[in-house]
Write a structure and sequence with these properties.
This protein is an alpha/beta fold. It has 13 helices and 9 strands.
Length: 293
Amino acid sequence: MDKLKKSVLITDLDNTLFDWVTLWYVCFTAMLDEISGISRIPIAALKPGIRQIHQRHGTSEYSFLIEELPQLQEFLGGRPPLEVFRPAIEAYQRKRRETLSLYPTVAETLLKAKGGGSLIVGYTESMAFYSNYRVRRLGLDGVFDFVFSPSDHEIPTNIPVETIRLYPRSHYEFRFTQQRHTPAGSLKPDPAVLADIVAHLKKTPSDCVYVGDSLHKDVAMARDADVTDVFARYGRAQHTEAYTLLKEVTHWTDAEVERERRITEREVRPGIILDQSFGQLLEFIDFGNGNGR
């Protein structure tokens, strides 16, 4: 079969380039175990409050969970939460450093596509601060030309920024990759957003290929936007112990769960399937700059 020629690689990030569910689970459980151990509050008693906070802020990676968790206020008795629960924060950070890594073949595949002259674009539902940290930590700042993501949640007004950001603002920003924000409230599958990304790049849908791990969000969206779709089947994590915990403390509201149920009723047949690794993409796609290269 002849390879398709493309000049733009648009890819999901979480569970497509790296195992986000496992990363979240390892970090979150390490922190939660420490919180429970220090406060003597059972984990089961903490979960409802955690879920409420995650839903209020629209993310399961909310940075100020300890400061806002109501079950901890009586235990703290006015003491600084970041001092009392410092071991929990350090446990999270340590596990994050140890666990965050790209799936095999991702780095070389992105570099080959970029070396061929293609644009490399990330499109994620993870908020900017968290997704940007991972892109930078994984050495992909500059490999990506653009990353499209939701803007960040607000920092609580009662928390001085200097107590949580140890470095200058520039330390947390991309040096080379350009950050762009998706519309507030937009959730995949949103083919209009994908179409806007393609237009922003001054490309056409036929120039682009989109890779993602969800049939009903990524693949369906790409097909509806007339972009060549690729299903990263190797990245699916919906039936793991980690995913079970994620659902218990998730930021997904009942309305979002119902929306998820409805979109999964659609039958979606992917055009290209990667069942082993991201690197299989090069078996199907010839990446260039669109000018014969």
